[in-house]
């Protein structure tokens, strides 16, 4: 392989320093695969937990499960952790790991292209010191499934003269006290931020397109005795973690095979509505008309009381347009505002990063997926894209438990792949088309009876073909089992061109 001047050569290039990228860095380091670089577009580790700083941002997965298995945190303050605590946790883990010397912050990956002659990924980045180029044996993409804000396409929104920002790009410079605020969206982010806005705003209009099922959040602080036990009694925290894990896994059959069981969740949701809202008309507006679980089930004790407050209106008429200082709904009503918060979610099934990854045949990942939707072997590797490993790839997300479990499963698989490449003296691996197709067919089959396909809702889990290409349709331990060893026999392999030449 010829070496192009100005290129930095590394074994592994990791994209993103969130939970996925950080785990990959730590586990590669432990496996003595130390020649890597982590490229992060933001200024610190933490990913979504660094970026999402909207008021009230908290995790809706229990704290005991929301940490790496190799770095439990006895200090969590509450049953569900606030954003700042999770971000602090990732910073602590990163510092203690001794890998931060290989992290490059404030640097965006512009594109990645497989160079078949060099058998390397050529990755262009842009950072404070200008553009840079890397040649990497593998690319481990941990850019996150929920990282690119989706802005709503609403007539006139670009001409809005007040303050406007997405929930995931909160503008803390804007003083919200006494302001007239509109929030578009009623998903997981809105449900957390609206109750905080209600406390300080003059008035809040919440624009709801579809209501969600929302059940109570069994929230409480951990006592100092509990924290001491977690820290000092061997196995105590791990036992609680296992219990939480098992409790969440017990919900899987209702999601995946017997959606009718979700009636129990709907009963909980209805009770939550009755408790939080006094007005029958408002109760009706927030009651979903689809099976619970079809969209992500949300947890909150604050959402319904916030909607019931005197300074909040729930608007269900569709938005017709945005003017310079107001939102106009289809019924012609104009509601003036000072601040517009768009809590409209993320690009999930068509991730923008896919447009910037070009594989062996010169096609981008976006082109390849455009024909049939996102697909990857074991949610991690993709035919036509040698040595590309996607963490939180297609059909790996969860509606019921902690993504960190999935991330760790994938990272193990990637590390095993890196070891196999070295052990076998291979230049590249990519899953065979047959292996990938069989995997996808199996996922589609399992997806059929799930609540996500049958529950009667539109959700961000589904792509433009109506397929759920985001969620894992089963128990998380099954996923881990599938990825427990790197199955080289399901891969096309490339030996190094240099070796080919020597052997010729
Ligand atoms: P989301 O769940 O996708 O919600 C977006 C909301 O915006 C929905 O209510 C949607 O309505 C609405 N919307 C989108 N486009 C619209 C338009 N053009 N006009 C009117 N309304 C529009 O996004 P999110 O709340 O940011 O949450 C995304 C995911 O992030 C969650 O599902 C969860 O996985 C994760 N999250 C997790 C936590 C946590 O605690 N762990 C917190 C926040 C977010 P429709 O329902 O009709 O589409």
Automatic annotation (TrEMBL):
Its EC number is 1.14.13.22. GO terms for molecular function: cyclohexanone monooxygenase activity; flavin adenine dinucleotide binding; N,N-dimethylaniline monooxygenase activity; NADP binding. InterPro entries: FAD-bind_Monooxygenase_sf, FAD/NAD-bd_sf, Flavin_mOase-like. Keywords: FAD, Flavoprotein, Monooxygenase, Oxidoreductase. The keyword Ubl conjugation does not apply. The keyword rRNA-binding does not apply. It holds the Pfam family FMO-like. It comes from the Bacteria. It is an enzyme of class 1 (oxidoreductase). This is Cyclohexanone monooxygenase.
